Amino acid sequence: MTGRGMAAVAPLLLMVLLVLSGASPMGAHHRHRERWEEGEGEWRPEEEEGKGGPGRGLFVLDKVEKVVESEGGQVHVVRGQPWPPAYVAPWQQGGWSTACREGLMHIGFITMEPKTLFVPQYIDSNLILFVQRGEVRVGWVHKAELVEKRLKMGDVLHMDAGSTFYMVNTGKGQRLQVICSIDASDSAGFGSPYQSFYLGGAGKQTSVLGGFDPRILVTAFNTTYEEMARIFMAKSGGPIVHYTADESGSEEHGQGDKRDGRDKQGREKEPWRQVGRGDEDERGNELRTWSWRKLMGNFGGASSNSSAAQVNKKKSSDKTVRAPEPYNLFDHDPSFRNDHGWSVAIDKHHYEPLGHSDIGVYLVNLTAGSMMAPHVNPRATEYGVVLGGEGVIQVVFPNGTLAMSATVRAGDVFWIPRFFPFAQVASRGGPFEFFGFTTSARRNRPQFLVGASSVLRAMLGPEIAAGFGVPEEKLREAVKAQEEAVILPSFPEKEPRVIRQVAKE
Asked: I want to staple 233 with a disulfide (CB 3.0 to 4.6 A). Which of 61, 261, 357, 486 is the partner?
């Protein structure tokens, strides 16, 4: 084998060796809302960024990317990972490739300051929004009509890839925090975890319409060069801008300093030179102030006083647009509940829009010291975000060796590949709460390996006993000792020595 071939194979062999070695109640359900309103468990990306490192845990996602930095907020993304990782040659860019996108998802964290707007845009990925804290008004185009929904804490809303939308923080003096799934399967794949296409000018992220020739825009909008210059040459504070509902002043809409088509030095920008401009309006040289709603009303060349426009307006007013309502996780009974915690799992049968992107949503609350029993997801990869508390996540390789045992706390992101056994254990210091997404909108039907409702209990018999190599009576006694299901009681105070004694014998 050539030296170049050895260089290509060596990293792959190292990865294989690492894998084989295995290194690496209802009242509480509603109290979650109160805790977040008091400000506990706030996600702090600035503190989390750069901590952890690859040695912390194979299935803990530590790399945080700031994809939007604006005067009114930020967007951070934690990238998911494919399993198994796809290897490419060292001379190819990227090293370990993420080209394999089946079951791949990224987790986004949107933070918006009070009275801010996330400007109108569409992106190349399906989104599922979860309001972690605060209140938000979301507007989007559904069946060619504008629909607005007010979301509160615990609400889940689906957004199709390519749907044009905006978000307004409506919480009085409260920071808005939203967790979202970013479906990598539809992404355009230009390096960033997703691509935003802004309709409104947004500083460096200018409007996609601004890329067209001015003559095309003037003709399409049926307006003048001056009016187009006032819109497209305006300066704004970025994708997330300060905003109020009062439309009397441009400053309150986040438009910032307008220079009527001039650059930072006050010089007129070349594309909007007044050569071949349209007719002046009745006020002579005075430029009209046009809102985006008014401009979009004229888009397509239809005059607002034309008979066709009036007919279309009448038809739209007679039509009721029924868009999907948000689904609130706190307003529904848990899917499972006992004295040790509760869990909520929603799929397309509970909330039909989840079927559009084939993604499920879940929320789990474990009491202090309790444990989600070892189980397997047969249909989906699972991504989770720790909302509060602290706990341990253990994941097991298919060969029965420990893949990861990692302590996680509020703000950490973890993922579990499909078919991999895993368990979550709350610390004794308090409840452990985590929210997340699954890469299937069908009923997941997790298979619990231990407990009263486990597959081990269902298969009790001579066959499974023979598999363990123990008498059936002994196995039956051990399997039936646990009377709880799904969420199990806490660890005993002291580690039992029975297992060690049996092992020595």
From this structure: 261
| Residue written as token pair 């368990």 | 423
Cβ(500)–Cβ(493) below 8 Å:
no
Q: Where are the alpha helices (DSSP H) in 60-172?
A: none
CA distances from 127 to 26, 117, 323, 440 (A): 29, 18, 16, 14
Higher pLDDT, 254 or 237: 237
- Whether the CB-CB separation of 194 and 68 falls below 8 Å is answered with no
Collapsed DSSP state (helix, strand, coil) of residue 408: strand
Cα-flanking dihedrals φ and ψ of residue 458, to 5°?
-70, -30
Per-residue confidence at 313, pLDDT binned at 50, 70, 90?
A: very low
What pLDDT score does 22 carry?
41
Q: Exposure of 60 by Cβ count < 10 A (0-12 exposed, 13-18 middle, 19+ buried)?
A: buried
For residue 23, what are its two tokens? 């290194």
Identify the three-state secondary structure at position 445.
Answer: coil
3-state class (DSSP) for residue 329: helix
Could you tell me if 429 and 437 are in contact, meaning their C-beta atoms sit under 8 angstroms apart?
Answer: no
**How far, in Å, CA of 341 to CA of 368, rounded?**
9
Predicted TM-score (pTM) above 0.85: no
Q: Is 95 helix (H, G, I), strand (E, B) or coil?
A: coil
Helix (H, G, I), strand (E, B) or coil at 120: strand
Q: Are 113 and 139 in contact (CB under 8 A)?
A: no
Is 201 in contact with 257 (CB distance < 8 Å)?
Answer: no
Average pLDDT over residues 309-315: 45
Q: Which two tokens stand for residue 331?
A: 């307003």
Per-position DSSP letters for 340-396, written without gaps between them: TEEEEEE-TTTSTTHHHHT-EEEEEEE-TT-EEEEEE-SS--EEEEEEESEEEEEEE
